[in-house]
Amino acid sequence: MTRRRQDGIDPVARSRARRRALQAVYAWQMSGSKVNDVISQFAHEQAHEVADLEYFEDLVRGVDKHQDELDTALAPFLDRDIEQVDPIERATLRIAAYELRLRPDVPYRVVINEAIETVKRFGAEHGHTYVNGVLDHAAAEWRAVEFGASKKK
Fold first, then answer.
1. Per-residue pLDDT of the chain (153 residues; tens, 9 = 90+)
2. Could you give the count of Cα atoms lying within 13 Å of 133 in the half-sphere of its Cβ?
3. Is 58 exposed, middle or buried (0-12, 13-18, 19+ CB in 10 A)?
4. Contact partners, residue 141, CB within 8 Å, separation at least 6
């Protein structure tokens, strides 16, 4: 039985890739290691857990490459400096911001839902509420057409 959609994407493997990306971005943020080292470490582990390795790498490399841009874009939606945000929530927000801004192929609702579920699993007790609020406001601005169309349904 295959879980792949008609477009070839396996949503379960993508979810796993996002969870692993969160762990990798968190480790990268906390250790200051080179992103290639972190990817290598997590990619090896990921190979044993059917996940979308290509998507995992895209997320981690994308956050690394665009970190300043993502942090600047998130700033208007935060109630504190990005560096003061809980590290798990910060990593999640950066990954979700990358997807919302640079992966228009991923529906904004999927991005937000995945971010919320990931923070529920790994973050602080009410961290998902904060992440949801930030990303909901960000999506309304960054994906205005898509966001507006979904609110009319």
1. 446 667 678 888 899 899 999 999 999 999 888 888 888 887 666 555 667 889 999 999 999 999 999 999 999 999 999 999 999 999 999 999 999 999 999 999 999 999 999 999 999 899 999 999 999 999 999 999 988 887 766
2. 8
3. middle
4. none
Are residues 58 and 106 in contact, defined by beta-carbon separation less than 8 angstroms? Answer: no
Q: How many CB atoms lie within 10 A of CB 98?
A: 27
Looking at residue 136, its amino acid is: D
Tokens of 114: 């995945």
Per the CB < 8 A criterion, the answer to whether 123 and 87 are in contact is no
C-alpha count within 13 angstroms, C-beta hemisphere, residue 127: 20
Place of tokens 């979308």: 52
**Model pTM score:** 0.90
